[in-house]
Amino acid sequence: MDNPFKGEHLLPGHLGQFFTILAFGSSLFAAISYYFATTNPGDTSWKRLGRIGIYVNAISVVGIGACLYYIIINHLFEYYYAWEHSSRALPTHYIISSFWDGQEGSFWLWNFWQAVLSCVLVRKAKSWESPVMAVIALSQAILATMLIGVEILGGRIGTSPFILLREAIDLKQSAPIFATNPALYHNYLTYIKDGNGMNPLLQNYWMVIHPPTLFLGFASMVVPFAYAIAGLWTKRYTEWIKPALSYSLFAMMVLGTGIIMGAFWAYESLSFGGFWAWDPVENASIIPWLVLVGAVHVMIVYKNTKHSYITATILTLTSFILVLYASFLTRSGILGETSVHSFVDAGIFWHLVVDVVVFLILTIVLLAIRWKELPRTTKDEETYSREFWMFVGSIFLCLSCFHLVVVSSIPVWNAIFGTKLAPPSDPVKHYNIVQASFAVVITLLTGFTQFLKYKKTDNVKFFISTLVYLVVAALITLPVIYLTGANKLQFVFILIMVGAIYSVLANGKVLIDAFKGKFKLAGSAVAHIGFGLIMVGALISAGTSKVISENTTGQDFGADFVKVKNNPRENIILYKNTPVVMGKYTVTYIGDSIAVPNHYFKVNYKVVDAAGKVTEEFLLKPNAQANAKMGLISSPDTKHYLFSDLYTHVNMSNAIAVGEGTEAAGHDEADDDKKYDAPIPYEVAVGDTIRFRDGYVVLKSIGKVDKVQDIALTDKDVAISAKLQVNANGKTYDAEPIYMIRSNNAFDFARKVEDAGLKLRFTKVLPQKGKVEITLYQQPESAKKWIVMRAIQFPDINFLWSGTIIMVIGILLSIFRRNKELKTV
Amino acid sequence: MKKSSIFGLVVIAIAIAVIISVYSNSSTYGSFKDAANTNSELHVVGHLNKDKKLVYDATKDANYFSFYMKDNNGEECKVVFTGSKPQDFERSEQIVLTGKMEGNEFHAMHILMKCPSKYTKDQVEITEAKAKQASI
């Protein structure tokens, strides 16, 4: 091929582009084949064609990944994606995550997991294969269009990850020299030495595992949807629920894990000081999950009682539509100024809308056509039955989701109705209160429903056991909230605490019964206990987290300023080596350690008891990267205890400069003096003390020296040194400035004690007084190294993390149970 | 009446309550002028006046930050924020403030800024080629 541009590697891109088209073509082909396989069940050749389509699609999706990986790992910056998301300095494991750093890469990830699930389903779905695969292949085909990047009718469909840098960006505009000199332009690659690199915030091992987990969760939600559609389509109304249940539980487990991983990542390495901020992007991931959890419960209700079929179907269908809606919210750029996550409209706004609308119409039309035939029960559910309250709980989950959708979609309402609403001015408080009300109902339901049986329960027995447990839960709650300080919270949060503890107790009883023989109940009991613990952990840690770095020393900016209900003064300045007492800790910024590109601030925490003895001491190293492209990017460090965490985050410092490490060495002497306050000469004799702001200096002795650095001394030279001991902030340092006379000229060699911010000169000898003159240069307070930090204590956050693990184990047990049932029936 | 119908009514009632609570809790976008005329909290969108001084001196008070912002109508106002200066504030392209007027100053509870970072803006960094530069 004749390519005027030197040094470009076009083959991987062409191959990759071929695979994107093939992935789209094969999935569309599979969808059509499986459609006809469903409508002509007698003809097995359609099914065979469909399978070929699925396998070709899987191969081409892997092919896209392989080409993209090759491009990124070999730093082929002629490709926009590699240039935009990676750089040479990026270590290998982060190169993997730069893969899904961009829009296209995350779509690929979604595509990949759907391809994997397709291959599993082709083997496992048996009689459901054709209709289920038709739906999944359709979803796969629509996702594939996001990656093809082909121009049709003047508009571009999707964005290909294989677009070239010179096609994506007008290089001639960026660098006018290219416009005037075509020879240079054809050689442009030699000027592109490195890629943009990845946002330092994302250079974290969570970025390697969080997105794949989250997208496996999103991808697996298509399976229950496909089963529900297949059930309606082939009129096997009631049969789809049983096989779909395991997949729903799987999606619920994986997506739940992915969401909590995101929370953990935010808590551990981002700087917003918490695990959940109700950002629209976070909400977008939890919206489909809530409805899915509701759907799973109603599916179980249907399986056991034949009640609530229509609700089970609608919730299952809705959960997948919400996945697509969430993807529209986060990727279309509509959130604009309501989210800290900066998402720009990448030109796929309408594409995403179409994605949602296609599946929404499919759902509505199919439901409308089959509506009259759907199985219903005429009999009302018993009030004292498990199914009724499970149903109520599921609906409350959906209401909680409904609230999240209504608030997160405020920009969407503005776009549709032309209104100018803004999100609540204190969104966290708003979400917390409203969501807490739903959480109270849901935790109580997960508790008392355990005492009910399907169909009908003896209500006297039920009331007795319910009440006994409720009283016990309330009794446990009292000491818990008083010990943790949660009693000062709003009443609704205390109710959640009662509900969560109640749920843990009631499910604990079920778990004990499970060990006595009813083992199949263990899964749900364990999952509910996990959920209860998540609530307890979230409530205590978020509700009683305490900023221990509250600043009480700040300069007064006038009474007006103090009066205002304003942010608490959460930041505190720490000068190097000057201890500050915060709560029970004595905190000192003791220095820095630099491992390029990270700059670690060493912050020492000490707990000193009444007798002045140090009972505990540890070092936290919050770090910052002075990134030339993004400025200072800092991430926190956390001390983990069993029952609380201490989070420390540095906002700002004068010890770090952008472009660190390139600083020119060798300052001018006069310049150096400018960094200090005006020098003060002291006349002192041996044994005298000079006081300064942070301590004192003692003149220990004066002695003759034979050698001054590199200068060879002759007999005619005289050099004497002053041995000084500097005491600053409880530490001692030695300094030995030198005074020298050479050929009747006096010189002196200053000594610095950086930690104390001092420069000491031996400036005169006063033999008649028997004294010497020591000149002291002291750094002004502001020139000393400092950090501005924020420290927050999060109590009992480990309940949240361990609750998650327990919940995942519980769901896993349930999956095993449902799979076993599937085989035995 | 069937129990499911009663429950359905309860659900609808809660849904309406949710919408009303969101609507009443929702704030509005406005200008500094609007903020001066109201006591409630507002969202003000605008941009930093880079000619005027940003005040943040951690050595004096690590929790006082003030700057001048022009709202979308071009009106300028001094803004005070209790907290440390957000990173890269000088480079911000657009600022969204949440807060209210106190006298002549706008007291922000929350600042959200959009930065034209290298990670979102397409700007190729062209470096001088040197003789020893190997081609890729």
Fold and architecture overview:
The complex is a heterodimer of chains A (825) and B (136). By secondary structure, chain A is an alpha+beta fold. Chain A is built from 25 helices and 24 strands. Chain A folds into four domains: 1-198; 240-417; 563-657 and 786-795, no CATH class; 673-783, no CATH class. In chain A, strands 6, 7, 8, 9, 10 and 11 form a six-stranded antiparallel sheet that branches. In chain A, strands 15, 16, 17, 18, 19 and 20 form a six-stranded antiparallel sheet that branches. In chain A, strands 4, 5, 12, 13 and 24 form a five-stranded antiparallel sheet that branches. Chain A starts with 10 loop residues before the first helix and ends with a helix. Mean pLDDT of chain A is 84; it is low at 554-567 and 659-668. Chain B is of the alpha/beta class and 136 residues long. Chain B has helices at residues 3-25, 32-36; strands spanning 27-30, 42-48, 64-71, 76-82, 94-102, 105-114. The chains are: A alpha+beta (825), B alpha/beta (136). At the A-B interface, helix 17, strand 3, strand 11 and strand 24 of A face helix 1, strand 1, strand 2, strand 4 and strand 5 of B.
Q: Which helices and strands occur, and which strands form pairs?
A:
The complex is a heterodimer of chains A (825) and B (136).
Chain A lengths: L10 H29 L4 H30 L6 H6 L6 H8 L3 H22 L4 H20 L1 E3 L2 E3 L7 H4 L2 H4 L1 H5 L1 H5 L18 H16 L1 H12 L7 H29 L10 H26 L3 H23 L17 H22 L15 H23 L1 H8 L3 E2 L4 H22 L10 H26 L6 H25 L6 H22 L2 E2 L11 H5 L8 E4 L4 E3 L2 E11 L2 E11 L5 E7 L2 E5 L3 E5 L1 E4 L3 E10 L15 H6 L5 E5 L4 E4 L2 E10 L13 E11 L2 E5 L2 E5 L2 E5 L1 E3 L4 E9 L4 E8 L7 E10 L1 H28 L1
Antiparallel strand pairs in A: 1-2, 4-24, 5-24, 6-7, 7-8, 8-9, 8-10, 10-11, 12-13, 13-24, 14-23, 15-16, 16-17, 17-18, 17-19, 19-20, 21-22, 22-23
Chain B lengths: L2 H23 L1 E4 L1 H5 L5 E7 L15 E8 L4 E7 L11 E9 L2 E10 L22
